[in-house]
Design a protein that fits this description.
The chain has a domain of 38 residues. 76% of the residues lie in helices and 9% in strands.
Length: 116
C-alpha cells in the first residue's frame, strides 16, 4: 500500500515536471534532415521543441530496454538449458519411482504368495 502511494506521488511529480517542460518549450523548432542544403532543405520537420524532447526520452527508454534485454541474453539461454535439464532429470526421477513402486508391489505379491 505504501509502495503504491509512493509510486503514485512519483508519477504525479514526473507528470508535473513534464507538463512544465512542455509549456516552457512550446516554440517551433525546425529539424533539418538534409545535410547538403540547410537553407532550403528537402527533408525537415517543424514541431514544438517539447515533442523532440519527449521523442528522445521515449527513444532513450526503448534503447535502454533493448540494451538490457540483449545484455541478459546469456542468462535467458542458461535458464532455457537448465530448464531442459531439470525436465529431463524430473522425468528420470519419475521413471525410477514408477520402477521402484512396481518392484515393491511385485515383492509384496511374492511375499503374500510365499506366506500361503
Amino acid at each position: 500500500m505504501i509502495a503504491r502511494l509512493i509510486w503514485s506521488l512519483a508519477a504525479a511529480l514526473a507528470a508535473v515536471v513534464l507538463v512544465a517542460l512542455a509549456v516552457a518549450n512550446r516554440h517551433e523548432v525546425r529539424l533539418v534532415l538534409d545535410p547538403f542544403n540547410r537553407q532550403a532543405p528537402v527533408i525537415f520537420a517543424e514541431l514544438p521543441f517539447y515533442i523532440y524532447l519527449f521523442a528522445m526520452l521515449i527513444a532513450g527508454v526503448l534503447l535502454g530496454s533493448f540494451a538490457t534485454w540483449l545484455g541478459q541474453g546469456k542468462w535467458r539461454r542458461l535458464l532455457r538449458a537448465r530448464s531442459h535439464e531439470v525436465l529431463r532429470w524430473k522425468g528420470e526421477a519419475e521413471r525410477l519411482m514408477r520402477e521402484r513402486d512396481a518392484d515393491v508391489a511385485e515383492r509384496k505379491k511374492q511375499l503374500a504368495l510365499a506366506s500361503r
